[in-house]
Amino acid sequence: MNVFWHRLGFHRALRRFAEALVLLVPLCGCHRSVEAKPHSASSRAILQPTERAAQPLYNPTRVADGTSAGGKDVAVHYSPDEDLSVIDSSLLLSAQSEISISAYSFTDPLVADALAQRAEHGVRVRIYRDRGETRAELDRRRSDDPIIVQLSRIPGIEVRVKGASVLAHLKAYEVDGKVLRTGSANFSPGAEKSQDNDLVIVHDPTAVAAFVAKFDEMWNRPDNEGLR
């Protein structure tokens, strides 16, 4: 019996040592994958340049594991079969002149980092937000500012918030007036990785032009607000 308890104590100590070692890994500057698990805006800031992993530019004809319908004009992707944040970030990184994005929820650091990178390279970025969801993100702030606040401080990025309480529920953006992304997925880790959502990429010029016109209409509403 004494041998049993002795061994049990040894295993407990070993387990505690392993747990402590896991906690020490981030403090050692060891590499952590941004895809390991979802991050909230309060726990993860926009990626720093040293943390940024190279992302391939989006290929609209790609068909991934039979879950995407690839074609010349439209490609459809589904979560959780695919990580939609990777598709979003790679598509945004292809921008050369402008990005106009309408977002209900906005807490995905990978998507935010793609916007930050393009703004740093001279791309004009406009972000239109829902009022209630934006205020909720601001109210949840802890040690780090919410992602939307961090983005608003970057030159070349402008944020406007819908003044009316009726939801701004559109989750879509255009890239360079050539590509439209729409679908049910919010720009949040849960929506892009875990929930049942779709992400639709459209290359039809008429559809893209219609979104640009709608976005400009929303962007120029007289009762729009800034971040508070």
Describe the 3D structure:
- With 228 residues, this protein is α/β, with parallel strands linked by helices.
- It folds into two domains: 1-30; 40-219, Endonuclease, Chain A.
- The chain is built from seven helices and seven strands; from the N terminus they run αβαβαβααβββαβα.
- The protein has helices spanning 2-24, 84-92, 109-120, 131-139, 147-152, 189-193, 205-219, and strands at 74-79, 98-103, 124-129, 157-161, 172-175, 179-183, 197-202.
- The model is unreliable at 1-15, 17-44 and 60-71 (pLDDT under 50).
CATH topology of the largest domain, by name, is Endonuclease, Chain A
Largest sheet, if any?
Answer: 7 strands, mixed
Count the domains: 2
H and E order? HEHEHEHHEEEHEH
Query: From the alpha-carbon coordinates, what is the Rg to the nearest angstrom?
Result: 21 Å
Q: Under the CATH scheme, which architecture of the largest domain would be assigned? A: 2-Layer Sandwich
**Portion in helices:** 25-40%
Mean residue pLDDT: 78
Q: How are strands sequenced across the largest beta sheet?
A: 1-7-6-5-2-3-4
- Strand tally, please? 7
The number of helical elements comes to 7
Beta fraction: 15-25%
Task: For the structure shown, list the relevant keywords.
228 residues; 2 domains; seven-stranded mixed beta sheet; 7 helices; 7 strands; disordered N terminus
